[in-house]
Specification:
Helix content is about 90%, strand content about 0%. The N and C termini lie far apart (about 140 Å). It has about 150 residues and is an all-alpha fold. The chain has helices spanning about 5-10, 20-45, 45-90, 95-105, 110-145. It has 2 domains: about 15-105, no CATH class; about 110-148.
């Protein structure tokens, strides 16, 4: 080995090594070079990096969706329980039950039904009269035309 080779950092093969050791060293260097080439190829492959990032983002969104769904389920359950409790409380109040009785006692439904029936009768009878007038006027017109 010369002093220039030592300064440049090159590794020269010593002649005292046996061939099997040299073969093993060559195989090790080839493996390291293969790994290095694969790493460089992975860094240079933008499409694969983008796909990996998309998959990573999809996984994160799926996890967030599952978490949000669980949270909504818990919130809905607690709100349902609160609403049920509040409904029971309101039903137990005496003024609510009195108001309910008052509304059912003074409900306008019978009057509304009677008004609707009366309106229906007027429309049906009025429609018959209109049709009768039209028919009689048509008959008169036909008679006049027939006389000419």
């Amino acid at each position: 080995m010369s002093s220039d080779d030592a300064k440049k950092g090159s590794t020269a093969v010593e002649p005292t090594k046996d061939p099997d050791a040299l073969r093993a060293e060559i195989a090790e260097i080839r493996a390291e070079l293969g790994d290095t080439v694969e790493a460089l190829a992975a860094k240079a492959d933008v499409k694969a990096q983008a796909q990996a990032k998309v998959e990573q983002t999809k996984d994160q969104l799926r996890e967030k969706a599952v978490h949000a769904k669980e949270q909504i389920g818990h919130t809905a359950g607690s709100l349902r329980a609160k609403a049920t409790d509040r409904t029971v409380q309101l039903r137990e109040r005496p003024e609510v039950s009195r108001a309910k009785d008052t509304l059912s006692r003074y409900a306008p439904w019978p009057q509304v039904a009677a008004g609707a029936a009366a309106t229906l009768v007027v429309l049906v009878l009025g429609g018959r009269k209109v049709r009768a007038r039209r028919a009689s006027s048509t008959r008169r017109t036909l008679r006049k035309v027939g006389r000419r």
